[in-house]
Write a structure and sequence with these properties.
single chain; mainly alpha
Length: about 90
């Protein structure tokens, strides 16, 4: 493993043999497919994330973690998101 900026660790896949690299590649493909299926079956995720990003870019909070916590723990979040979900239903 190699340390990256911000504390993120990058794996050095060159230490894997060919079989391990192929298994890893197949695992990544399966994970992407599974994630895509999940997101397609839950369009509310797109609305939630889009709404959050719009607010972040509009308000540009200094404390992004606190802002995110407040945003996603808002007791009125469902009432905010449902009309947007209904507005997107004709495109899905």
């Amino acid at each position: 493993m190699m340390a990256e900026k911000g504390g993120v660790t990058k794996l050095d896949v060159s230490v894997l043999n060919a079989e391990q690299q192929e298994k890893l590649r197949q695992f990544k493909i399966k994970t992407r497919i599974d994630n895509e299926r999940y997101l397609r079956s839950h369009p509310e995720v797109d609305v939630l994330i889009g709404d959050f990003l719009r607010d972040v870019l509009h308000k540009r909070p200094a404390d992004i973690r606190g802002f995110a916590a407040d945003h996603f723990s808002n007791p009125n979040l469902q009432e905010t998101i449902l009309p947007k979900m209904e507005g997107n239903s004709d495109t899905n």
